[in-house]
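Example 3.2
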Amino acid sequence: MTDLRSVTKIKLDGAVRTHWSRLITAAPPGTWLFAPEGTAVHYDSGELYTKHNTAGVQLLVPGEWWTAWWWQDRRWIGIDVTLPVTETDNGFRYTDLELDLWWRDGDCGIVDQDELREAVDQGRIDSDTATVAERVAAELRQRLRRDREFVEHGFTVLDRNLTRSAGSPD
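Structure, written as tokens:
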């Protein structure tokens, strides 16, 4: 039996999107989930938003201001800076603060600072929250640059689950 968890992402514009992923492990530093290529992401209305065009593993750590994906295509990492991740009865929920990070081939960066500023200007988040988001993003960028174990561990988890998924009838 597959142990599925829901992951709900709330955008600052009010859009709510949910997908289901298979639980890999729930142990420090957090919970790892696997989403195969084709995983459907739906709006809260049930309407299809998109399907993942590649497989990935997601690390969710309740209380942290971020969630990270290690993606199979082009071997890259994407991180959403969020309000603190919360655990629900059947998974996780977080509010995306628009600020994102990426890592690929040893290079990394922060994107969408303009979207964060726009959210503050429009009153969707306050300036104190934006300041925390910017600090978290700066710390994560340093982690992506310096913490090779963090970067590689996610790809190891991904590779193990791609192998497991390829041999599974699921």
